[in-house]
Amino acid sequence: MKVRVGVVGGSGYMGGEVLRVLVGLPQVELAWATSRTPGPVERVHPNLYGSGLGFVRLDDASAADFVFLALPAEISIPVAARFLDGGARVIALGSAFRLKDRALWERVYGLKHGAWQLAEEAVCGVSELHRDEICGARLVANPGCFSSAAILGLAPLLRTGRIDPGHLVVDGLSGTAGAGADFSRAIHHPEIGENVVFYNVVGHRHTFEMEQELSRVAGQPVRVYFTPCYVPIVRGIAAVCRGFVTKRVGRADLLAIYRQFYEDHPFVEVYDQPKESGASWQYLPYPWVRSVAGTNYCFIGLDVDEERGSVVVISVLDSIGKGGAQAGVENLNLMAGFERTLGLADRGLHP
Amino acid sequence: MKVRVGVVGGSGYMGGEVLRVLVGLPQVELAWATSRTPGPVERVHPNLYGSGLGFVRLDDASAADFVFLALPAEISIPVAARFLDGGARVIALGSAFRLKDRALWERVYGLKHGAWQLAEEAVCGVSELHRDEICGARLVANPGCFSSAAILGLAPLLRTGRIDPGHLVVDGLSGTAGAGADFSRAIHHPEIGENVVFYNVVGHRHTFEMEQELSRVAGQPVRVYFTPCYVPIVRGIAAVCRGFVTKRVGRADLLAIYRQFYEDHPFVEVYDQPKESGASWQYLPYPWVRSVAGTNYCFIGLDVDEERGSVVVISVLDSIGKGGAQAGVENLNLMAGFERTLGLADRGLHP
Amino acid sequence: MKVRVGVVGGSGYMGGEVLRVLVGLPQVELAWATSRTPGPVERVHPNLYGSGLGFVRLDDASAADFVFLALPAEISIPVAARFLDGGARVIALGSAFRLKDRALWERVYGLKHGAWQLAEEAVCGVSELHRDEICGARLVANPGCFSSAAILGLAPLLRTGRIDPGHLVVDGLSGTAGAGADFSRAIHHPEIGENVVFYNVVGHRHTFEMEQELSRVAGQPVRVYFTPCYVPIVRGIAAVCRGFVTKRVGRADLLAIYRQFYEDHPFVEVYDQPKESGASWQYLPYPWVRSVAGTNYCFIGLDVDEERGSVVVISVLDSIGKGGAQAGVENLNLMAGFERTLGLADRGLHP
Amino acid sequence: MKVRVGVVGGSGYMGGEVLRVLVGLPQVELAWATSRTPGPVERVHPNLYGSGLGFVRLDDASAADFVFLALPAEISIPVAARFLDGGARVIALGSAFRLKDRALWERVYGLKHGAWQLAEEAVCGVSELHRDEICGARLVANPGCFSSAAILGLAPLLRTGRIDPGHLVVDGLSGTAGAGADFSRAIHHPEIGENVVFYNVVGHRHTFEMEQELSRVAGQPVRVYFTPCYVPIVRGIAAVCRGFVTKRVGRADLLAIYRQFYEDHPFVEVYDQPKESGASWQYLPYPWVRSVAGTNYCFIGLDVDEERGSVVVISVLDSIGKGGAQAGVENLNLMAGFERTLGLADRGLHP
Fewest C-beta in 10 Å: which of C198, C219, C332, D55? Predict the structure, then answer.
């Protein structure tokens, strides 16, 4: 029996990715996708040319078993409530239900939250940390792309108890897909081409998602110093995470800890290639963004500066793959009782 | 029952793509892949990190039902003979068996051909033109990437008989993946970044493949004037094909002719979006390279300049997708009696 | 004595480039630059941070000796008239005064032309073809970027009389700077990144500028079949020009003809590097776009397919350098009696 | 009177940039440039097509007043000695003479240093910190590109005494030009295109240059945690520098301190644009890499997270501009008594 799935906000990049992954899966009936401009999906997403999919208005969206929300925070709150009331289970890809501290959420987003009980109910959509809760959840809130990368990259490290939780420095490098389909100067090609554009270098919203989830993992308050930038690639992000060790730890030990942490999880690869350079494996000791672009994988590599007492973790994923829409589909799979890898098993491209 | 498949030349981009597509398919046993440097596949193809695949030396390659050859012309001729003699069916992704005129081949490649009877036996691997022959072939020779794009783009047009066969102008824009894994100045990032690099602007080898196959389709000699360049993208190529009409023809008529030509073929989309611009479908009347990158699709769009009496056909595909390795897998599917779309159904990314 | 120069439309890429080139030249007083949003120039052009330049409203622009117009066609017509009436000499970088056939202009632009006598008066701003007229002109109209590249690339060839004037095929590859500072889907980075976007593949407006000027050079009507696309680079364009020979001609002869044609002109380099490949000069027989990006140079290379009877000319320049703003400054230099190379002598970057 | 200048290692990117900047300057006689392959410069640097420059073998290099060394460390030591002995003054762009601790240098480079007295004599080539010494120096050693960016970015901050000197975190994003003209996998376009490649994430050689120079500025030992990566741009780098404050400090105060620090220095712009977003100045509060690409400028912006007690400094420059060859020319200007800005005054491009 197929599950009926709807996508609210199908003309954006997140919604379009949900459609791309789900189209053609025998277990899924793509019931509808919404857009402010109804019409053929292919006029927005040319990769789906010939798919026959079309957009409807949100008012015309019927009941569904599962609903993806790919909407700005403000809009998505009443829409989530509507579909939950109608019996659907909801996977929210936006930021409406990510934080558990209402005052913080309202300060960060500059909005009053109209349905805070939903934020309280929402399960954090990081399957590696909340799988069982996700399976039974009515409402799942996927974190932001940088948050996903940093949380996956730092959670095992914080579990070791050997890292200073007060000084975690995270640099985020994002492809432009993460900025979305709306035009803006930062991703206007003549501006971002051959450029690096920094923004919100202090106080970026994802900081608080990282701190919330990593504090939970660490069992104590964590401070993250996060600085993002756009680099001229389309898909994929990297989080470069730095911690200062409070108790000596080696690279091999850390890799073993990471491997154990993720051993039941098919989409995180703890990445470890030889550091000495060989003819064909030059520049491979740390994971590449491109290796996970377009996929639901997160590759995590790391190194230790024993002299200086620091750890560097490189965590790469695709902001609309494992950092967004595909992680949402993974959650759909968990919630619907499908194979966790359904529709998501493809490896990235090389080159 | 699984078929046993081997890949000769697995460390190049073509061979790696065959591995990426076939890994995990239940119908296929990846028997082996060869490389001059045995070892883990992931040291060359980091996208396959954790796949457990390894390279063996060519001498250690065992028997197989199907063998992909991803090798330079000179080397691949005796290797093809060896595996054919051993009972395998061979899909050659290189240029050893593409031309039917021995003198021309030997002039173009500057080599003596050591097994010309194989070149004579080889079936051209364009499934849209040679499906039935491919199904029964022992040796299939896939054309070059530009040739694939131009042949698919121009074959229906030549069938109309309304085009001057003596003056077909083709511009080829290639991503750097098409140039391969070997280092060279044209695809050294500091040189090709923010650049366009023209090469072989007259006499490129693919010219002769285009002329051979299009002459066959047209039933008369065809002249192609082909000029390629590298543009700073990785995957995907475009062939811009121009013909001068000998008898008036309109855009709608041509689109209908193209649709009929490809109606039984799942991987060619005759692309037609509105020319008038709308808020969301700006710049979409002609196909985008990115829409087919990483896939086995070829999207073909066209337009007619009625005032000047010319037709422009835009044909886009991925040089190691439909223009290479994935087209080879499509031929494997035909030869092995699988679904033609097995392992190849994915749509490209947007964005 | 300094000349007073004003720039109308200084917040666009063309206007900004005029400012960048002229700022700091002792011979020039940058009297003003206009923008709909007055304020520091650096908020629009961050490269000019610290320059102290500011924008004024067009209404506040005072008299000047020379005025650059970097405006859409419709707007620039009355503005040109205003400044000409005030005694200024005008260099129009837009399309208002480029065509000499009024009916054609009005059809192509879909507008009534409000000051056609100015279009008749305007001198075509290709200094290599109209130097003496430009020196004395009151109004100079610089052609479009693709037109500049194709006209410079094909003019000497047409002079030979050995080329079929009815079938010139021109492919244009443009960086995104040529599309301007206004946002649009074609140059939204997530859409154009790793992509090639074709547009107006028949009937592009620059076609008519090429035909007008090349017909003049040839002394007979010329037909150009022009197809443009955007490639994901910022600065620079290439025009790949193909002609069919009516009378045999060799590469060396053509190069000599081109060299003679441009011998008095400092910004056109007839480009000729060895075709046989060497360790360090691989891929250099034809000019690179990057070599001229940011400059006022046009590099022209060519080759002859003697077997097929065709000539390929590769003409590269920067759409806002020699194909726009810097060519405008070159015309200012001619009009003001300066050294023709004033402010323009810099070579492009490598890498 | 002209000074005679020679360039050792003219076929690399650093050497080529020296040639590009110096060619045509009336104050400079380009006496010679060396390469292992003598011949026209344009076969290596196509931007200089038509310049008439040629390479000679190092053995054929004559005496000169000033010699630029653009060579690997090992080779450059005896070459420096040779030219210094011959009476030339030397500007070393490589790493032979950058560190003052011999044991450290020999460990970091894995070499014995054959002329340590030269390393001791060498003046650090950061003109903003060592102008007077440079003016009189016989041997100047320019630091690495990342070092230049981080030193310029952090020196004023350390002078405040309000920053923890033991925990400075620096992320380096580099264009591929910084990796040089030699082929390698990290800058093979199919590998780096649409990718971010991390390398030497702990223990990168530039770390020690930063620590040496910043410790000198701070008057106490400084610890830098530096992680570099390549991003798919050609020219330009960014250093994202993070410090933890030991005593509260505000953004405006810091900007004033930085401005004062650099007030006599024409090539450092302390960058400060409004943080609130406006229609045209979106994404401009921090400097862009592209604004300084191809130039001798360093733009430095910063922000303070008062809640978390941290400072972020964004320092951008071109690795072969202010972070390499052009900074070398600036030092030539100081040493020769020229205007400091001779040949270097150009602003970067926008777009």
Answer: C219
